[in-house]
Amino acid sequence: MKKFVNDPANFVPEMLEGVALANPEMLRYVPEYNIIHRADRPHNDKVSVIQGSGSGHEPAHIMAVGPGMLDAASPGGVFSAPPMEFCYECIKLMNSPKGVLVLINNYQGDRMNWDMAVEMAQAEGINVKSFVIDDDVAVQDSTHTVGRRGVAGNFFVIKACGAAAERGASLDDLLKLAEKVNSQVRSMGVALTSCTPPAKGKPIFEIGDDEMEVGVGIHGEPGRRRDKMKPADAIVDEIFDAVSSDLPFKSGDRVALMINGLGGTPISELYVLYRRAAQRCSDAGLTIARNYVGNYCTSLEMAGASLTLLRLDSELEDLLAAPAEIATRIF
Amino acid sequence: MKKFVNDPANFVPEMLEGVALANPEMLRYVPEYNIIHRADRPHNDKVSVIQGSGSGHEPAHIMAVGPGMLDAASPGGVFSAPPMEFCYECIKLMNSPKGVLVLINNYQGDRMNWDMAVEMAQAEGINVKSFVIDDDVAVQDSTHTVGRRGVAGNFFVIKACGAAAERGASLDDLLKLAEKVNSQVRSMGVALTSCTPPAKGKPIFEIGDDEMEVGVGIHGEPGRRRDKMKPADAIVDEIFDAVSSDLPFKSGDRVALMINGLGGTPISELYVLYRRAAQRCSDAGLTIARNYVGNYCTSLEMAGASLTLLRLDSELEDLLAAPAEIATRIF
User: Fold this and answer.
1) CB within 8 A of A245, min separation 6: which ones?
2) pLDDT at residue A329 tops 80
3) Which of A162, B84, B194, B200 is at a distance of 20 to 30 A from A120, taking alpha carbons?
4) CA angle centred on B195, ends B190 and B200, rounded to 5°
């Protein structure tokens, strides 16, 4: 295993400490519960928007904490759900009179722990509700999932709800907004390599030198099939067809297009994929109103990429354009 | 070779086309000469700041084009200098009455081609001058270098000169500024894996499963030595010592600290490195006024990272904080 790591047991805490040290004015770190939260939260004037899932998907979710995005995130270990206590403490810490919205990606471990934490918090009178994201069209059920998985489309739910919460939306309004974004967003990915969690020390799956996993999950879950490597354009064509036919997206739609790297793929290759995806959008009569090319939801150092399409309306375009700040800034 | 690529011969043009398609308002692509330039440049009111080097280091340098950064970039093939004609055409295209500043990283191919292009342009009466960046402390001379190599410290020269040019600085002022930044910035990197240029189809060097290259160059040039893998903190300690003792940085200095990923290392690991580097700065009495964690100057999918320290004064802090926009935005 060749990684920048000290004791693998401390990988997540040391990463979180690094994130907090790099953002001393914007973020706070609560080591007892793996919580990263906005230094200026909670206040009483807005709904708190929070999320927690396995680590290893950075910048999702801890580096998506900041003004206009998440108020807090509570990650678990690499590829493992946050313990129920962490979820519960995160809700309590971010409690606000206007309520708390928990955004959950659809994995059984995350759902179970967050559901219990939400119930416990509600029993104490905290106004908290949750919403489950499931944008991955690759498979219906999966290794860790009943129903579709939540993947990079999650970014758009966070961005929209984060912006609306900042503007004073109510908890019920935010639930409706999350439902709207989730209903309009579709994703699918492909993996070229596996990846190695520090504490495991070996790859989570094997894949041949000439193979790719089409429709891979972000924890290496099997997708639609194992296939031989193909040219970039052919790969885009397959995932674009799968994603765009699912909603379906229609000529005249305005969309946000995301090419998301899975961690180990250089950004040069992501732009080669974007080129073809933009051509396909143009051919299909889709107008790309906003685009996103980079690492948003990763699987450690996995080489691979996913494509996400979000159908826009004026409300969503406005919310996506709203100011936001997170740890993964360039400047 | 497992990459998102079509015909390897088209890798760079297809990437550039993707970058232009993703930034239709901000950027223009000139396919004849591999040039990416600001859509609103050149104007007569400012010095044009340009750069060109081998591809494969993205986001450097083509994705560093934008307001407050580069006005244009002219990349060559992967890890090969841009042809002299490309450099020459880039200077001519960005010609401005206030002058053109060419920022060159110190590699022999880049220097030779840009020097010839600058001479040709000067012979035609164009007011163009160049500056060579050499921030890598790892080795004195290298495979492709007489003198030190230019690596991620390049970002700070671009950022400072880009901001100053936007404010109307003269060509001579910008040359002095570039010299000042270059004199105050030091870098060193370590590689855990090799990388594979698409047209070459095989790794540029071999490295054992338990080895790292300390002081690696961004084209895989040998560094100070091949060593066995060590814990993250020990790796940071070695490169921090090499970098901070070189200027030397002194207690009381205000600095910018960059942990730069070489392309294949997940951002989680970069924050583990940042944690230790921030501790070391604190121990050494250095105040981190600005920090940068992410991929700035890469070597395709190479796993590895570099550490850059820049000594700040009020002028540099002000210029680093100035607004800028580039293709690799998150939102």
Assistant:
1) none
2) no
3) A162
4) 145
Of A327 and A82, the structure prediction assigns the larger pLDDT to A82
Mean pLDDT of A27-45: 93
Q: A249: distance to nearest CA of chain B, Å?
A: 20
Return d(Cα B323, Cα A25) in angstroms, integer. Answer: 19
Domain ranges in chain B with CATH number 3.40.50.10440: 10-184
Size of interface A-B (CB pairs under 8 A): 190
Q: Looking at the DSSP assignment, which residues form a beta bridge with residue B260?
A: B294, B306
Average pLDDT over chain A, rounded to whole? 96
Residue of B nearest to A193 (CA): B2
Is A61 designated active site?
Answer: no
Q: Write down the ipTM of this complex.
A: 0.97
Question: What is the reported pLDDT for A145?
Answer: 81
Q: Element (H or E) spanning B238, and its range?
A: helix B232-244
Return the residue of A nearest to B290 by Cα: A22
Query: Among A3, A6, A287, A330, which would you mutate to test the B interface (most chain B Cβ atoms within 10 Å of its Cβ)?
Result: A330
Reduced to 3 states, what is the DSSP secondary structure of residue A70?
A: strand
pLDDT in tens, A37-64: 999 987 779 999 999 999 999 999 999 9
Distances (CA, A) of B122 to B33, B117, B128, B130, B177: 20, 9, 6, 11, 22
Cα gap B47→B27, rounded to integer Å: 18
User: Do residues A248 and A258 touch, judged by C-beta distance below 8 A?
Assistant: no
CATH topology of domain A185-318: Hypothetical Protein Tm841; Chain: A;domain 3 (3.30.1180)
User: What's the burial of A116, exposed, middle or buried (CB within 10 Å: 0-12/13-18/19+)?
Assistant: middle
Give the residue ranges of chain B where pLDDT is below 70. none
Contacts of B274 in chain A (CB under 8 A): 18, 21-22
| Strand ranges across the sheet with A185-191 | A225-228, A211-214, A185-191, A304-311, A254-261, A287-294
The pLDDT of residue B304: 98
DSSP B171-182: HHHHHHHHHHHH
Residues of B in contact with A17 (CB under 8 A): 275
Is B330 in contact with A294 (Cβ distance < 8 A)?
yes
Q: Which residue of B has its CA nearest to A68?
A: B331
A209 with A158: CB under 8 angstroms? no
Q: Where does chain A show beta strands of DSSP type E?
A: 27-30, 35-38, 48-51, 72-73, 100-105, 128-133, 185-191, 211-214, 225-228, 254-261, 287-294, 304-311
Q: Test A266 with B2 for CB contact under 8 angstroms.
A: no
Q: How confident is the model at residue A327 (pLDDT cuts 50, 70, 90)?
A: confident
Q: Residue A291 is nearest to which of B14, B22, B300, comparing CB atoms? A: B22
The CATH 3.30.1180.20 domain(s) of chain A lie at 185-318
**pLDDT of amino acid A136:** 97
* A269/B21 touch (CB, cutoff 8 Å), yes or no: no
Least CB–CB distance from B265: residue in A4, A268, A273: A4
Euclidean distance between CA atoms B31 and B23, whole angstroms: 15
| Residue reference for tokens 């100070």 | B224
Are the CB atoms for B22 and B53 separated by under 8 Å? no
Q: How close does chain A come to B5, measured CA to CA in Å? A: 5
B274 → closest Cβ in A18, A55, A278 = A18
Which residues, including other chains, have CB under 8 Å from residue A78's CB and lie 6 or more apart?
Answer: A11, A12, A54, A55, A56, A197, A198, A199, A200, A300
What pLDDT does residue A140 have?
87
Is-catalytic flag, A57? yes
pLDDT digits (tens, 9 = 90+) for A135-155: 999 998 877 788 999 999 999
